[in-house]
């Protein structure tokens, strides 16, 4: 299927590895030009080189910056102002016990995982509406639907973003102009983030990381962890011309782990 995004410009955050890279890679392979952002310059450059190799002919601009800061966002928009596709993504806050989190911890989590995506939406959405095409995908978490007790900072901040998107994504002046906003909710994917969480669980339980990973894997009906490539493919479809009638949705990609009906 031709997704109809060849020649479009996409901004993908947290794109040096993991799910963000999977999204940038998939979009570029569909012919979209990409501006990729991440904090680590070397890893970002390696990601850019891989995308250029796998998607010859597309433009790839790498911006080493912290997208959760004003300076980081200015660096991105200094390279390019208008985008047809925006994929928001920032590293999730650390797990822990809510008794230990102070106001600063909460503000940091909300700033990165709620307010930063809102700032990116605000900066790009009017231009999308004027041009008659726009796709915004926020990478959030399956914990929005099934909260995880040790990820309270993430549960709270990402749920706040979900509530905001539920309203603005249904604005008639946006949807009628072919601008959509959706959230993509990953479950357990084989990423550094998952391994970091599992490492913490292993230390707490006294088990090995392999034992903890295996215990998590067998709880998933698919009996495996997801891959960044398949996550990226789902993102690319939500950004496609064919997805113009999908907005305000929380698309769960978790191998069947969520047990609910709705």
UniProtKB/TrEMBL annotation:
CDD domains on file: BKR_like_SDR_like (cd05344)
Membrane-spanning residues: none
Classification via InterPro entries: NAD(P)-bd_dom_sf, SDR, SDR_fam
Residues in the signal sequence: none
Pfam families: adh_short_C2
Family as reported in the entry's similarity comment: Belongs to the short-chain dehydrogenases/reductases (SDR) family.
Protein known as: SDR family oxidoreductase
Source species of the chain: Ramlibacter albus
